[in-house]
Input
Amino acid sequence: MLLARTPSQIGAAIRRRRKALKLSQSRLGEKCGLRQETISLLETGNPAVRLDTLLGVLAALDLELQIAPRSKRDVGELEDHG
Output
C-alpha cells in the first residue's frame, strides 16, 4: 500500500507505476482516452487535474483509491507500506 497526501505524491506514485508497467505517457493516455500532456500534468502533481481524470488513470494502471483516517505518521515523501 502507498501513502500519499499531496498531488505531487500522487503524481509520483502514478509515474512509478506507469514506468513499472513499461508504459510511455502517450501509451497510458491512449489506454484511458487522455492526451500525453494530461498524463504529464497529473504526474507532476498539478492540483487542477479533475477527479474523474485521476480515477480513469488509476483504473488504467490497475490501481484504486482508498480513503482512510489520516495516520499520525509524518510523511515527507512517498512511502510503500506492506
User: Anything to note?
Assistant: The helical segments are 7-20, 25-32, 36-43, 51-60. Residues 7-20 form the longest helix (14 residues). The chain has four helices and two strands.
